[in-house]
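step: validate -> pass
step: tokenize input -> pass
step: predict -> running
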Amino acid sequence: MTTIRLAILDMYMGMANEGMRCIRQLIRRAEADHGVRFATETFDVRSQGLIPRLADFDIFISSGGPGSPLDTDEAWERNYFQFIDELFAHNQTPGPRKHLLLICHSFQLVSRHLGLGELSQRKSTSFGVMPVHLTAAGHTDPVLHALPEPFFAVDSRDYQLTHPNLERLGALGAEILCLEKERPHVALARAVMAIRFSPEVLGTQFHPEADGEGMLRYMLTDERKQQVITAYGEDKYDEMVRLLADPTTIEFTEGIVVPTFLRLAVAQLTPELVVAD
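step: predict -> pass
step: emit ->
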């Protein structure tokens, strides 16, 4: 069985979360689907300052996480950005490419690092199951093209990327793939929800790893139910439960984004394998 080396960059600072469970679950499913073994190692980037060596892995998934993505100038952040720069530089050279998926906090950090737009704190938290709209580039993207318009995704953020720097995006060959829900009654810029940074690097502001069934179980616990109702109200809680129970929303998105990212990476890294679509 072919072994592919995969590193998870854990950005959660040791905080309890569903994201890491969901990422690992999707990796196990991909092993079964594609007949490969992922030799997976996890690196606690923010709490322990651990960064994988680029040469040691083929695929990288950099998670979401709490707190501000604005400039901190901490040692872990400088090392993280050095890793990001090395990965992009490596992919400009001949030979096998390195594949990277950036989720939420990681997406924000790299977008800021590359100067792709204005990263700022939102006036209020965006939290829930939200509609997301594909751009023209999103409709033809190798990963996102299979999603409906609009598609639904788990959104949980206090920060956002707006006012994209189109000149900088063009210079890097990057494309905006989707935007947040339309809000005609609000005179505010729509946040960027996904960017194709390069053929091998995809970033999403939303949480593509979110497991509809698992999140529904989590939301139905008394503790989490009370937390959400206290913070956002009972109507928001009821809407989230309804959408999480709908197999055409989060469950559908979960079945497309990360699995397709992994499938395409495996296909490029092991062309001798036939990886079914």
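step: describe -> DSSP finds ten helices and nine strands in the chain.
step: cleanup -> pass
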